[in-house]
Amino acid sequence: MKEIIDIELTTHRIEPSKCKTDMLVVGLFSDTTRLDKLTENLDRKLDGAIERLLKLGDFKAKLGTHAIIYGNEKIAAKRLLLAGLGERKKATLDTVRRAAANAAMTAVEKKAGVISLVLHNAFGQRFELAAMAGAIAEGVYFGSYCYDEFVTESENGRLESIKAEIIDFDSVKIKKLNKGVLSGTIVGKTQSYARTLANRPANVIGPPQLANIARELARRTKGLGCTIFDDKQLAAKGMGGLLAVGSGSQNKPRFIILKYSPANKAATRQPKIALVGKAITFDSGGLSIKPAKTMDHMKFDKTGGIAVLAVMRVVAELQLPLNVLGLIPSAENLPSGTSYRPGDIITTFSGKTVEVLNTDAEGRMILCDALAYAVKQKCDIIIDIATLTGACMVALGRNKAGLFGNDDKLIKQLQRAAEGSGEHVWAMPSGDEYADEMKSKVADLKNIGSKWGGACTAASFLRQFVGQTKWAHLDIAGVDVFEKPNDFAAQGSSGFGVRLLTNYLMSLAGHKS
């Protein structure tokens, strides 16, 4: 299989106009009334080309847009890319990230193998340099990503690699930028890794293959351990939810346990955190089968589990002083003579019984076993992430994930992490009024409620398995995939959750970029 585009990201101390590069990237705000010193100097060397472009109105500098001016003998760059930053007052770190992603996408399109970014200059002292460098690094990886590992022929070919550099003439600034590049590169590279795994089809990744990937990751990553429960071990432990969902497939379910053990002894005083990710490698709906249209997208039902796998890699590579458990229940939900059925009553790992009314409500069936396992492991905080309900997409569209939980402080921490990461969430309820809808007359619970508030009732179902443990649930249905390319990302998996959960854990650890 073909490798994705390789990115090498560094810093470089140089005066921008003297930088030999295929593409020099600077940022402009849409409400700019006067060019800053750097851009004014470039404009002078380009004989006023930037000012002429702005006066003509051909470039309005909206976020997600760009304009290219070709170089001359007065600047060393072959191209100058003006990256739109939108209105100055609305700028966030995600503005930096998206501008870098748009520039990287353009570099791939133009086959510009070397790009030099000086985006941070436009923001002055608004954000810390390390934070901006981290966002730029994440953006470069995000925008340059293209999933084509099974494409054997291409008319125009594409770059095998891109050398990206964040440049500045000030050595003090370069030192600060370097700090952000380190963490940003780890996060950006790992999010690309997550996107590739999520994009792979079900005939390439089933539960056993995903378990092997996790095992190999642990083997080559310091501080990371891996335990796999196969179907026989699941049966012995009474994980009835996971076994039921996987009962219709020849690819038997797996429960993947990744444990990060930090070298720092001070981490023993930190809370024990469980990240739980749904990994349905393909979801046909089971006997309650889905419509054929867009069923191919059901390979993305493993996205939550892939996000947890990737975050565990980031935690280990950053050597965060935290105790983190990554729990990934994985199954393939297919119809067959051995599938679980509507009307079945399943005994889950917690001992609670669930009446199955719809086999397509399978995510909660595998997550409830993993959540109960996290409680049994005496975790202090549990966060699960899953493409759980179409109802969440109906409620929030494709711009935000649903955030649910039983602890206000944890909810606020995740909201701050979402803001910093650019992976947006919206808090939604999951209280007793929703739990009442999930009560069954023949079992402890049923696996679906009424047609109203489906994301809330699904979250309230999960809540029944965490007891008093601090818990949050991220429903990422709708934000897990880009159905078509946009101004900063290619079509396919978004890798949602990798940046958000990493940001949360870094904040918890007191880690600075």
Structural description of this entry:
This protein is of the alpha/beta class. It folds into two domains: 6-197, Leucine Aminopeptidase, subunit E, domain 1; 200-479, Aminopeptidase (3-Layer(aba) Sandwich), CATH 3.40.630.10. It is 35% helix and 20% strand. It is built from 15 helices and 20 strands. Strands 7, 8, 9, 10, 11, 14, 15, 16 and 18 form a nine-stranded mixed β-sheet that branches. A six-stranded mixed β-sheet has the order 1-6-5-2-4-3, with helices on one face. Strand 15 (401-405), helix 12 and strand 16 (425-427) form a beta-alpha-beta unit. Helix 4 packs parallel to helix 5. The protein is elongated, with a radius of gyration of 24 Å. The mean pLDDT is 96.
Please describe the topology of this protein:
Elements lengths: L5 E8 L9 E6 L8 H9 L3 H8 L9 E5 L8 E6 L8 H18 L3 E4 L11 H16 L16 E8 L2 H29 L7 H13 L4 E6 L1 H7 L2 H6 L8 E7 L11 E6 L1 E5 L19 H16 L4 E11 L11 E3 L5 E3 L7 H14 L4 E6 L3 H7 L4 E5 L2 H14 L3 E3 L4 H4 L9 E2 L7 H10 L6 E6 L5 E2 L9 E2 L4 H11 L5
